[in-house]
């Protein structure tokens, strides 16, 4: 990289860490101390847990593992190990209070900035290209998305605001679906310096020819499924999904409610009519799968999704993003909590793939049909608990990121996963069919 390359990496790491902390502060300063320590849903931690966990992971990886320091406060380390305490139990732990958690995270960050200034960003897998710093910035941004989910679940008056995305910039796409040719493409990456273990290594993958939706499935399309009795027709549902909607009386996406013949939704404390042209949000994998069957289609596989997002048929190369190799800008995608909702379907023509598929990055996480599995040649790094322990048929892969995820934690190769019953996440989908 040379000296100027390393100065750039240092700057990149500094900027990414600083942006993450600004977002964390915004999400945690917006509510009272009482609210920070409350548990708004058994699915989520109290916000004050996320705050100290962010600091604790940063201390663990950068101060202890990279710099070789001893633990600053050994007695708190077990409290913030996600594997020792399930989310539902966290409010009962002797957690740091809001002021202590803020002080702790700030103390760690001060030491991390000293370390970043004096450490060579090379010489070990953790340090090369500033990986550990990038991993920690991504970790904090992932928890900032988690905390935004907690905000969405909390009752009470709105505390977060952001401008709306506005109408699409330019004409709508010419066709509802796009044909992706069959054949091999490069999936995953061995080059992206801050890619996480499950995105690696780059490898050849073959797909048949398939059609994929140009835009994510919208609320109005989803409403047609609801209105057609989709939630009452067992034909469309995987057995476990059918069980789930009956056990919980589910008949629409999470946060929707029907009143006087109209669908309303609650979004960050505001009740509003469900906007017809916005990608559907807060559906489980089962709901996405059922809709696709009802529509005579199917969810794309993870490989199909990535091929649609990265394969350039003109060059045969896989790019970092649908629009090319350039980092995301606000013209490409709805990322980073700039807006607190997805943008209307058809937005971001500048972010389209070479074949014209839009909104693959940002807006809503897209369920794929695939189980979360390792790529050939996968090696857990730097810890098995990031992804390896989650591999298997119980988790389904989501791709592309939502409006809530920061660009540092979102790229064409980025893989997210969750249980197929989950719907509090910022999840939507698009459909596909064999050609
Ligand atoms: C990749 C979003 C599934 O939140 O469970 C945060 C990210 N891992 N801390 C999660 C993560 C450890 C992870 N997801
Ligand atoms: Fe974490």
TrEMBL record:
Enzyme nomenclature, EC number: 1.14.99.50
Keyword Phosphoprotein: no
Catalytic activity: gamma-L-glutamyl-L-cysteine + hercynine + O2 = gamma-L-glutamyl-hercynylcysteine S-oxide + H2O
Cofactor(s) listed in the protein's UniProt record: Fe(2+)
Residues annotated for gamma-L-glutamyl-L-cysteine binding in this entry: 87-90, 418, 422
Pfam families: DinB_2, FGE-sulfatase
Keyword Iron: yes
Pathway: Amino-acid biosynthesis; ergothioneine biosynthesis
DinB-like domain residues: 16-147
Amino acids binding Fe cation: 53, 139, 143
EC top class, as a word: oxidoreductase
Annotated segments matching region Disordered: 305-325
Compositional bias of kind Basic and acidic residues: 305-314
Domain Sulfatase-modifying factor enzyme-like: from-to ranges: 175-433
Sorted UniProt keywords: Iron, Metal-binding, Monooxygenase, Oxidoreductase
HAMAP family membership: EgtB (MF_02035)
Family: Belongs to the EgtB family.
Protein's job: Catalyzes the oxidative sulfurization of hercynine (N-alpha,N-alpha,N-alpha-trimethyl-L-histidine) into hercynyl-gamma-L-glutamyl-L-cysteine sulfoxide, a step in the biosynthesis pathway of ergothioneine.
NCBIfam families noted in UniProt: egtB_TIGR03440
Protein name per the record: Hercynine oxygenase
Organism: Streptomyces flavotricini
Gene label: egtB
